[in-house]
Amino acid sequence: MKKTATFLAASALLAATPAVAEKWDMPLAYSGSNFHSVTAAEFGKCVTTGTGGEIEIVTHPSGSLFKGGDIKRAVQTGQAPIGERLLSGHQNENPLFGVDSIPFLATSFDASEKLWEATKPTLEGLLAEQNLTLLYSVPWPPQGLYFKKEVTSVADMEGVKFRSYNNATARLAELTGMLPVTIEAAEISQAFATGVAESMVSSGATGYDRKVWESLTHFYEVDAWLPRNHIFVNSDVWSGTSETNQNVIRACAELAEYAGTWRSKEYTGFTMAGLREGGMTVGPAGDGLVGELKEIGATMTSEWLEAAGESGASIVDAFKAAQ
Ligand code: PCA
Prior knowledge:
three-stranded antiparallel β-sheet; binds pyroglutamic acid
């Protein structure tokens, strides 16, 4: 904290020097009221203030500038200087991007933090190879299952139209006999209202943000995993940024990771209550269903380990050793 205050004070002084202001548009996939977007907006303000206005970050929530699936490429190619993305949506490019969505590996905020510590160095290197500089990362709350009927076993899921947001969710749908369709969070209210989808795996946060009680009836807490959003900057833009401003941005990123994680935790209970208020039945999945899901999770874990090879195994080993 002291370091941060020093950076901010130092850059406030530098603000007295007139400089050319640079505007960094920051595409976000999720709605402005979502806690990730609120955190990103605060991060943006911190950078704008801290750099004395030399870098002004302007966030564009709800996929308004680039949709979630396009944000990574946009930042890699410099169409946007900075952005936020759920990297597990790019497991096709590299299995390691999906390490945070292995079912039942890291199922609490504490475990998610440890998995992140084990993952970060490898992921930073991987992103660097793709012209991306990682700034910070914030977990979503634990993932559960949404339906528009009571579900007590995998057999009840047969043929249900399922909204997926990454490879792991699509694979889970296949293994449970559901029909996956990829839909961005910004568009799910409509997808549920029109019947394009009738189920999903997500957090209470996303169900609450998108008011899914208007179409769905049940949320089963499964705590299957806690996927993460990652905030990264184009590496050419980064290397063209002064060392002073890089320091300010790093300090703001550190604060944002802390504040975002705190919000994610707080939001977990709050949004469960919100779903209930909306009229949904909210509670833990039954033992029978959990048992079946764990079997599917074991299949997905071995598939992931097979695909991710040695570097995947060493992340998982490091995580398990830290438990
Ligand atoms: N919400 C995001 C990803 C994980 C989550 O909890 C979504 O449903 O798209």
